[in-house]
């Protein structure tokens, strides 16, 4: 397959270009970044997009307009943006796959959190990242929170217990579908997430660490190879790994 990369000079884009070059069955035919002519992407069978939240929607629209399939790793998607992508895809043959995390550890962390969610009264998420990250909370934390909230609702669990009525500084963190998320930005770290569950007399903590951007490459290449078998908008690669 011929692969194009948008965001090719970024931290993830560089890693993706190298992973594509190293794969026997893939060929890197285009590598573009901010300000570049996107024309060379027209030679690609599939485009991989790792840029910034403010640019990603425009890049996805460009790919769909030009009949291309796109594997998106950029974070910062909410329901409104996803609905917009679905609307763009309507009546086209393009495919878009968006995943907030392509590492197997993070995908399993989210799956384990989804399984644990109906069984614990309390749950909070702490995500810790390098200080260059522009979006908060992380896409992974937002996805995890939504999966937990859905699993809690399906099992009839009510709100997470919390007596806080006075929080003038926002110390309780972000609220995503009723799940508290705390974002830490720390020099020396790359990417870590902890999901803290609690019940009377017990606690369960699920932790995932990424130490290197190499951790995302098997998932990204799996998505690249699988996208022609998908249709419309696909969220996450759990299904490609037999987890959904
Ligand atoms: N899904 C996953 O598994 C993972 C997702 N991510 C996400 O991937 C994204 C990228 O992360 P990272 O590589 O660290 O970020 P970087 O800031 O290192 O890279 C982003 C790149 O995109 C470029 N860019 C900005 N605007 C455009 C545009 N309109 N068209 C083309 N290129 C553009 C930037 O150029 P310039 O700097 O000149 O503006 C930069 O080279 C983030 O949203 C991050 O959260 C990260 C790791 C894993
Ligand atoms: O910006 C990053 O670095 C990362 N972003 C993704 C996210 O927002 O979840 C994935 C990973 O945590 C690294």
Automatic annotation (TrEMBL):
The keyword Amino-acid biosynthesis applies. Homotetramer. Keywords: Amino-acid biosynthesis, Cytoplasm, Diaminopimelate biosynthesis, Lysine biosynthesis, NAD, NADP, Oxidoreductase. It comes from Propioniciclava tarda. Residues 105-229 form the Dihydrodipicolinate reductase C-terminal domain. It catalyses: (S)-2,3,4,5-tetrahydrodipicolinate + NAD(+) + H2O = (2S,4S)-4-hydroxy-2,3,4,5-tetrahydrodipicolinate + NADH + H(+); (S)-2,3,4,5-tetrahydrodipicolinate + NADP(+) + H2O = (2S,4S)-4-hydroxy-2,3,4,5-tetrahydrodipicolinate + NADPH + H(+). Its main location: cytoplasm. GO terms for biological process: diaminopimelate biosynthetic process; lysine biosynthetic process via diaminopimelate. Residues 1-102 form the Dihydrodipicolinate reductase N-terminal domain. Its EC number is 1.17.1.8. PANTHER family: 4-HYDROXY-TETRAHYDRODIPICOLINATE REDUCTASE 1, CHLOROPLASTIC-RELATED, DIHYDRODIPICOLINATE REDUCTASE. Signal peptide: none annotated. This is 4-hydroxy-tetrahydrodipicolinate reductase. It is an enzyme of class 1 (oxidoreductase). The active site is at residues 129, 133. Catalyzes the conversion of 4-hydroxy-tetrahydrodipicolinate (HTPA) to tetrahydrodipicolinate. The gene is dapB. It holds the Pfam family DapB_N. CDD domains: DHDPR_N (cd02274). Belongs to the DapB family.
């Amino acid at each position: 397959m011929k692969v194009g990369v948008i965001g090719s000079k970024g931290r993830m884009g560089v890693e993706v270009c190298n992973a594509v070059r190293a794969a026997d069955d893939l060929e890197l035919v285009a590598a573009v970044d901010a300000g570049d002519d996107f024309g060379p992407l027209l030679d690609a069978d599939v485009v991989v997009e790792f840029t910034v939240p403010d640019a990603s929607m425009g890049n996805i629209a460009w790919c769909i307009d030009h009949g291309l399939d796109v594997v998106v790793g950029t974070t910062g998607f909410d329901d409104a943006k996803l609905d917009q992508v679905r609307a763009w895809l309507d009546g086209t043959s393009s495919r878009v796959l968006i995943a907030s995390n392509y590492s197997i550890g993070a995908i399993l962390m989210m799956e384990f959190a989804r399984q644990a969610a109906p069984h614990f009264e309390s749950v909070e998420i702490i995500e810790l990242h390098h200080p260059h990250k522009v979006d908060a909370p992380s896409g992974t934390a937002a996805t995890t929170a939504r999966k937990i909230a859905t699993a809690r609702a399906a099992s009839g669990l009510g709100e997470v217990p919390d007596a806080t009525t006075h929080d003038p500084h926002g110390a309780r963190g972000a609220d995503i579908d009723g799940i508290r998320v705390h974002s830490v930005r720390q020099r020396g770290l790359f990417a870590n997430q902890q999901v803290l569950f609690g019940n009377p007399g017990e606690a369960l903590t699920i932790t995932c660490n990424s130490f290197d951007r190499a951790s995302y490459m098997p998932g990204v290449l799996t998505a690249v190879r699988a996208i022609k078998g998908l249709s419309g908008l696909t969220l996450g690669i759990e299904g490609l790994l037999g987890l959904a």
